[in-house]
Amino acid sequence: MSESLLSRLVADGAITREDAELVASRLARTGGAVDSVLLELHLVPATHLPEILARVSGLPAAPEAAFAAPDPRARRVFPAKVAERHAIAPFALDGRGLSVVTTYPPDASLLDGLGFLLSLHLRPHVAPEWRVRTLVQQLYGHR
């Protein structure tokens, strides 16, 4: 999936083909998330990254309220180990609907399976990896 993000950025003129090759090379060497590497190399402004991830993934960008004021009830219905392992953070609970924020690329089958297991309708949003991991830490703390 990272290739599709890099290809999209090249096609949109946001980065050069050489920049995309640099990102791909770094990912092959060190691993990590493509969005984090884009930020570390200062290839994409942090303020534009949520919009880019939303456009490429087809999911809405996480609203700022997800990070500023997550619903504490959402944390209670979503297991900490799942949040930490899969970088998925719950932020709003409305009846049987649970809004979550996930990293790029989103794993639709994982989200569907989690919704089934939890008997909740998950409404996924996407955000940069560092923001999702920070929110998971904020919600659940160190384990």
Task: Lay out the secondary structure.
Layout (H helix, E strand, L loop, with lengths): L1 H10 L5 H14 L3 H7 L8 H9 L6 H5 L3 H6 L2 H7 L1 E7 L2 E6 L5 H11 L2 E6 L2 H12 L3
Parallel strand pairs: 2-3
Antiparallel strand pairs: 1-2
Give a description of the structure.
This protein has 143 residues and is of the alpha+beta class. The protein is built from 9 helices and 3 strands. The protein has a 3-stranded mixed β-sheet with strand order 1-2-3. α1 (2-11) packs antiparallel against α2 (17-30). The longest helix has 14 residues, at 17-30. It starts with a helix and ends with a helix. 32% of the residues are buried.
N-to-C CA distance: 30 Å
pLDDT < 50 runs, ≥5 residues: none
Order of neighbouring strands in the sheet with most strands:
1-2-3
Q: How does the overall form come out from the CA principal axes?
A: elongated
What percent of the residues sit in helical stretches (DSSP H or I)?
A: 55-70%
Tell me about the biggest sheet?
Answer: 3 strands, mixed
Proportion in β-strands:
5-15%
Cα-atom radius of gyration:
15 Å
Count of DSSP helices?
9
Count of beta strands: 3
Kindly name the structural category.
Answer: alpha+beta
**Whole-number average pLDDT?**
92
Q: Give me the strand/helix succession.
A: HHHHHHHEEHEH
Features:
143 residues, alpha+beta, three-stranded mixed β-sheet, 9 helices
